[in-house]
Amino acid sequence: MQLQEWLRSLCSHAGLKGSEAEELWSLLPSLSTSSLLGLGALASLTVYWLLTRPQPVRPPCDLQAQSVGDPSCRRSALLKDDNLLEFYYDDIRTVYEMFQRGLRISGDGPCLGYRKPGQPYEWISYSEVAQQAQWMGSGMIAKGCQQFVGVYSPNRPEWVISEMACYTYSMALVPLYDTLGTEAMVHILNLAEMSLVVCDREERAALLLECKEKGMTPKVSCLVLFNDFSQAFGERAKKCEVDVLYREQLMVSGCQRSAETLFKHTCFLVLPQPQDLAVVCFTSGTTGTPDLRASLISLPVPSQGSFVIRQEDVSISYLPLAHMFERMIQVPEWGSREGGSYLVHFPMISSKILGSVTSPLQGALLHYAVGRKQAELCRGIVRNNSLWDKLVFKKIQASLGGNLRFALTASAPISCTVLSFLRATMGCMICEGYGQTECTGGCTFSLIGDSSTGHVGAPLPCAMVKVVDIPDMNYFAKNGEGEICIRGPSVFKGYLKDPERTAEALDSDGWLHTGDVGQWLPNGTLRIIDRKKHIFKLCQGEYVAPEKIENVYMRSVPVLQVFVHGDSLQSYVVGIVVPDREVFVEWAKERAFVGSYQELCHNPDVKNAVLEDMRAVGKEAGLKSFEQVKELYLHPEMFSIANGLLTPTLKSRRQFPLEGVQAFFSVEMVPLSCLSG
């Protein structure tokens, strides 16, 4: 009877008709017992495979039509009509309400985690965060805070609690960070008229105190520290009438104030409204200040409809909390359906993370395993339990905890090679997004199930995206190319106290002009192809847009980072390339070049081979001859914020002094004269 059931199941899954099944039954009497047992085993294995085979991820819409609209202006295909999504939850209108929803839905579950080196994570619950934020915010009010509160610290739980303290009392958060520099921070403190700044340790507070002592920041009157500070520092602060407090002291003051207001039967909370200011974010290299409204929580969970959030999911961030992209990711997590965080997101430093991971297996096996996994991705299958995951990629996946389910890359371009490699080796869904601080971090996002590269996805449901003509650069909206413009509830309201720059960025119809040049692809996704503002002229009069060329050269297999430059005294452009450690040595070996990563970078024949590959990629992409790099330098160290060649948003710093280039690249860069100006 069991054999008959197996065969019936097999016939059913195989789609055999009645007559065909009867013919199969007629063969049974002539089969031996061993044959029948073998046939039964085969049937069982077939049914088991059919039931357990990996299933492709179901995308939320047709991947060949991810956006809707005309050749120039498009919206998300996830929307039913042209009405943009303003709020993800019907009962949530502010960041404060989003956090309260997380508190309610999670059942007072863990909210913020931290750990000391070599120790397990310790967790602070939602209710503890809410209580500390309430007391801390009340203490800020007691110290005379009016609207703006500065936070000058690297990522840590107290940073987020300080942020929630601001939201609880309708104050605006102003993140500060080291790479702004002293001059920019003085400008920020004075423009926002801040009286209180929260710092992590004495060294950072001392920098602000020095500015106060010199009379550069007259409004600053209180510094709140997370860590211990010396008695000498406290006495020094008193001399210039600045109070220095521990965070715990501020909370005690706030608790007393809250108790007093309750005793008087008055409401001590000042809850925000959707029109209230939430964050003022200063970006590096500008004196203008994007002012971001409390409705920044209007951004939808990017993976909606395809990614199920679980209570045990945890978010790990590699971007500073001062970065608007990090703000965009963190806020929706508070109100997630299960109350837990759920995203691990990668900026361009994902390449650096994987660069520190080495496979013990031969490069040929790694290359073959990546190819097998990429073949599965093309069929929509995303998993981390295949044979290749267990044999080859286990160490790479373990480097990020072994539980990675979702990753997001944005903030700066990522090469197609690196993105494809990450998707194969990490065994999780990895999406790419695009946006600016002025549109609350994101406006386009690749969809779950889309394994293609070379684009930044389709518009988010909260944004309308269009391209407009740039005649001088031969980009026209009728061809689906032009400057990217964004409109929607996530677009900022303007630059703080700077109406002129606000008018330059926002036109009369509310469109944010980004300065980036995009191209609509046939599947409704957006590709970044150029930059409107970064243009230089060569000596023969040709205009060159370096970021357009860099985006093309990023498609070259050995290239991880590239910088292209020139000036009006030269007839050609030069390039500086950081090769991709993951593939460079093997790529060179295939061309009969042997050596370490460092040795290969200084091998002139290898340099010429890289240059030849880049020029082939450039020719295929349609670069003109004067746009092609004529001279190249391979450098083994990644561009970074520390060495001054990346901005805090991880984009190439295009304006830096010649002597800085000489110091970094030594005299080996030829010709250095092209990098002046």
TrEMBL record:
Matches recorded under Pfam families: AMP-binding (PF00501)
Gene Ontology MF: a single term: long-chain fatty acid-CoA ligase activity
Gene Ontology CC annotations of this record: endoplasmic reticulum; membrane
SUPFAM superfamilies on file: Acetyl-CoA synthetase-like
EC number: 6.2.1.3
Enzyme class, UniProt record, top EC level: ligase
Top-level taxon of the source organism: Eukaryota
Domain (AMP-dependent synthetase/ligase): residue spans on this chain: 119-328, 388-496
Record's keyword terms, sorted: Fatty acid metabolism, Ligase, Lipid metabolism
Protein's recorded name: long-chain-fatty-acid--CoA ligase
Source species: Xiphophorus couchianus
